Amino acid sequence: MLNWEERKQMVKLANLYYIEGWTQQQIAKKVGVSRPIISKLLQRAKELGIIEVYIKDESVHTVDLELKLEKKYDLQDAIVISTVGLTPEMTKRAVGQAGAYYLSKYLKRMDAKKLGISWGSTLAELVKEYPFERKEEMNIVPLVGGMGTQHVEIHANQLAYELAKKMGCTCSYLYAPAIVETKELKEHLVAMKEISSVLEEVKEVDLALVGIGNPHKGSTMKELNYLKEDDLQNLRKMGAVGDIASRFFEASGESVDHPLNDKVIGLSLEDLRQIKKVIGVVEGTHKLESVEAALKGNYLDVLIIDEQTASALLRGE
């Protein structure tokens, strides 16, 4: 137990260090002891509860969410974006900005040569926000075919082209629909050299940018009339809760045994798992079940997500 005098001395040292901003060396000189002794006394004061450190910043909550997500889902990184005062469109833009910043920072540190990109409105925001910086050695590859003639600005081919322009690098094009009408037509198309060669490139990317869709809520594929009502009912019956690059999966994260998955021209979910680093960029609580399933399926190494959805993923912990 500390006597009154020792406790008072610790409080004084703590006040000089944390409130007055003195260095440990300055305090040591004043008290007439060595700096390591001051360090030990400050540590002892923490252990006794005399000093309690609080981080007062609006980002402390999101940092806490990030650490919990990384631990719960064994992620390399989680980036959680504060949504306070933001509309859904502003939130989507903020998540896109965070994704662009993360990708730019990652590419400065790592020697990546091939980048794969899926499709969707959140990834389109990432591409818009990505800075102009020279990455001439990079090649950008679409992970899935096009999505028809509507909303071309969010197709994988278009996103690959726009991102390549910003990096001053090359890109490949997957000249095929994302989902074709029959399995036979798919087999015919993927046998064509122009398509098969890009599909081989897809398997060789160093990292991938993907969005996550919910076929039942806020689905862009449904909005574009790419998924018919019969398809949606069948997908629901089969337990589909989400998709990555137009490949559907169930709540456990495993691929759904549905004919649509056999008609997709693009990366398979099993091939996605083999990519060294997969960055998921997601916005919206309507995708909660889809994101949770994707994490259970171990498709993502990095998750960039809004605060509300991140909180929902961790609810009950």
What does this structure look like?
The protein has helices at 4-19, 24-31, 35-47, 60-73, 88-109, 121-129, 156-167, 183-190, 193-203, 220-223, 229-237, 269-274, 288-296, 307-314; strands at 77-81, 114-117, 139-142, 170-171, 207-210, 240-244, 247-250, 277-282, 302-306. The protein has 317 residues and is of the alpha/beta class. The strands form 2 sheets. It has a 7-stranded parallel β-sheet with strand order 1-9-8-5-2-3-4, with helices on both faces. Strands 6-7 form a two-stranded antiparallel ribbon. Helix 1 packs across helix 3 (35-47) and helix 2 (24-31) packs across helix 3. The protein is elongated, with a radius of gyration of 25 Å.
In DSSP terms, counting alpha (H) and pi (I) runs of 4 or more, how many helices?
Answer: 14
pLDDT < 50 stretches: none
Distance between the termini: 37 Å
Mean pLDDT: 89
- What's the gyration radius in Å? 25 Å
Structural class label: alpha/beta
What is the oligomer described by this structure? single chain
**Proportion of β residues?**
5-15%
Task: For the largest sheet, list the strands in their spatial order.
Answer: 1-9-8-5-2-3-4
In helices, the fraction of residues equals 40-55%
User: What characterizes the major β-sheet?
Assistant: 7 strands, parallel
What pattern of helices and strands is seen along the backbone?
HHHHEHEHEHEHHEHHEEHEHEH
Query: What spatial form do the alpha-carbon principal axes imply?
Result: elongated
How many DSSP-defined strands?
A: 9
